[in-house]
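Most newcomers find our protein records easier to grasp once they have seen one. A record pairs a protein's sequence with a compact description of its fold. An example says more than a description, so a record of this kind follows:
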Amino acid sequence: WHMYDTVKGGDYLVDQPAAEILTREAIDAVYELEHRGLPFNRTPDGRIDQRRFGGHTRNFGEAPVRRSCYAADRTGHMILQTMYQNAIKNQVRFFNEYLVLDLLFNDGQACGVVAMEIRTGEISTFHAKAVLFATGGYGRAWRVTSNAFACMGDGMAIAYRRGIPLEDMEMYQFHPTGIYKVGVLLSEAARGEGGRLLNGRGEYFMERYMPTLKDLAPRDIVSRSMIQEVKEGRGVDGKDYVFLDLRHLGAKIINEKLPDITDFARNYLGVEPITEPVPIQPTAHYAMGGIPTDNDARVVIDPQWTPKPGFYAAGEVACVSVHGANRLGTNSLVDLIVFGRRAGKHMAQFITENDHAPLPPEPEAFARELVDRLYTSTGGASAASIRSTLQNEMDDKVFVERSDQSLRHALDSLDGLQEAYKRVQMQDKGKTFNTELVEAIELGFLLDCAEATIHGALARTESRGAHYRLDYPKRDDVNWLKHTLAYKGAKAHDVRLDYKDVILLDDPIFKPK
C-alpha cells in the first residue's frame, strides 16, 4: 500500500523499483533509528506510535491510514540530533564553517572538493576516494519558503557546473501550510492529528476537491485547492490566504503532539492556535528533482544511467526519483534513511576497492577565480538586491500555477539577473567571516537552480503533480511519462534538455491511471 501511494502520489513519474526499495527497507531503517536513540512517540503499550499523513492510504486508496512514525511534530529535527550524537560518539571529524565551491574529478572519477573556510577566507582542497553530497534543496530561490537560509542549491549547482545534469527540476513542491507571508512550515502533522483547512466563509473546503482524503490529500492537490479558493473569492477577508483550524483538537493534543506548530503560530503571527485559526498559504518546500542517482545513490550522468565513479548524492539534493512529480509527507525522511544508508554501504565498498584518483592540475583554480572576481567586481548591484528580484520573480511566475507566458517572462528576467550577477558588487572586502561574500557565492548557486527549473517547466507541456500548467491542465502520458535532464549551457537560454524513461514495473497495480 505504501508503494502504491508513493507511485500514485508522485503522479506516476516515480521510478518504481526505487519506490519498492524505499517502502521495503523503510521498516528496518526506522528500527535502526530507534536503536540509535531516536525518541519516537509511543502508544500506551510501548510501541512506536503512528499517525496519518497526506496521501497515505490503506487498500490502494480506500481510506487514510496511520503509517507515519513520529517524534511529536519535529521528527526531522530529532533524526538530525540523533545522527549528530552518533557521529560524535563514533568520532566523525567535522569541518565546520566551510563552504564547498567546487567538485574535483580526474579521468571521470571524483577525487575531492574545494572549499573555503568562512572564518578565515582561506581556500583548501580536500582529497578523497569518494564524495557524497547531502546538501539539501534550493528553496531560497523563492521569497515565501519553509527552507532554512542555508538551502541555496549548493550541491545541485556545483554538480551542474561540472557537466552533470539536474533531473526533474520543474517538479518543485509547494507545501500547503506555510505561515502567511513568512513561509515557515506548520507541519503536516497538524492535519495528521485532525487539523482542517477553512476558507473565508467558514467552510471546510477540501471535501469539495478530495471527498475521501479531504485535508490529507497529497500536497500538490491541497495547494492548488487553496489557490482555487482564493481565486474564486473565498480567501479570508478577500485576501490570498486561508486558515488552518486546530481548535477542535483541544489544548492537550495541541500542546503535547504539536508543540512546534503551536510555538510558530504564537511567535510569528501572535495567534493562539488553541482558540484561533492560523493564517496559511502555500510555501516553497521541497525539490523532487536534483542530481540524478541510481538506487545505491551513485550519481548518473545520462539517459543510459552511466555512473560517475566515486560521486554519490542523497537526500533532497539527489533525485533517485522515488518522489516523482510530488512527494508524500514523511517520504523525505524515509528517503534520507533508506538511500543514505545505501549510499554509505556502497561508498564503503568503493573505497576498499579503489585508490585515490590523482588530483587534477591546479585543483583550486576555478574556486579562486570565482572568489577573486567577486572581490574585484565593481559598478553593479548587491547580491541581496539581485536575490530579492529573483525571489519575487519565482514567487510570481514559477509558483503553484504556471503558464507559457509566465515562464517565458521568468526566463527573460533570469537572463538579466545572470548578466547582473557578473557585475555583482560587495561592500565588504575583508577575509574574516565575510558573509557578503558567502551570499554572493550562494546567489550564483540559486541562479543556476532557477535556470534548470524554468527550462524544465517551460518544456514540459502538461500538468503533472506539483508542475501545474494553466495552458496545459491535463497529464500527458503519451508524450511526457519521462524524466527531464537539464545540462548547463553558457547562458540562461542555452540549457540543453534531454530525457530518460520512467522505470515501470510489470504490475497492473502500478500502471499509470
Notes: The first helix runs from residue 2 to 9. The first strand starts at residue 50 and ends at 58. The mean pLDDT is 96. The two ends are 16 Å apart (CA to CA).
